Amino acid sequence: MSDHQNNNDAIRGFAKGGIAAAITINSGALIASLSQADSLIALTGRSFFADAIVAWAVGVSAAAIAWVFAIVAASGFANGQKKLELWAAGAGIVAVLLSISLFLLGFFSIAQGIHAQP
Questions:
Q1: Residue 39 burial (C-beta neighbours within 10 Å; 0-12, 13-18, 19+)
Q2: What is the helix, strand, coil percentage profile of the chain, to 5?
Q3: Mind giving me the DSSP string for 32-89?
Q4: Within 10 A of 68 (CB to CB), how many other CB atoms are there?
Q5: Cβ-contact 89, 69 below 8 angstroms
Q6: CB count in 10 Å sphere of residue 81
Q7: 87, 106, 103, 118: which is closest to 23 by C-alpha?
Q8: Which of 83, 103, 111, 115 is surrounded by the most beta carbons within 10 Å?
Q9: Are 73 and 18 in contact (CB under 8 A)?
Q10: Structure confidence at residue 18 (pLDDT)
Q11: Neighbours of 107 (CB within 10 A)
């Protein structure tokens, strides 16, 4: 196997781990929040709680979309379509960064709701 293929395999492994992490943190926050919805709404207020839930749900979706971009990038690599590979890889990175940012947005929404309560 060539060094180029080994490098591609390593990059795919890192991408897979990043996408899995983005899905896990957002879905974990979403599930944990929904399981404690009554307590969190009482603690933060309905608006802050709803904002966090939306952020985490969109974060899961963004990470899932990153997975699609990863497939397109791998297909571009396999078929020698360098422009497609680079475009899809870049879009996937943006989607993962968006997902992580949405996790933080949800966290800060809950924190702000707790802080805003008298």
A1: exposed
A2: 90, 0, 10
A3: HHHHTHHHHHHHH-HHHHHHHHHHHHHHHHHHHHHHHHHHHHHHHHHTT-HHHHHHHH
A4: 14
A5: yes
A6: 15
A7: 103
A8: 103
A9: no
A10: 87
A11: 15
Round the CA-based radius of gyration of the chain to a whole number and report it. Answer: 18
Question: Residue 1: which pLDDT band, with cuts at 50, 70 and 90?
Answer: low
Question: In this predicted structure, what is the pLDDT of residue 4?
Answer: 64
Q: Does residue 106 contact residue 118 with C-beta atoms inside 8 Å?
A: no
Q: How many CB atoms lie within 10 A of CB 58?
A: 16
Full-model pTM: 0.86
Alpha-carbon torsion 40, 41, 45, 51, what sign? positive
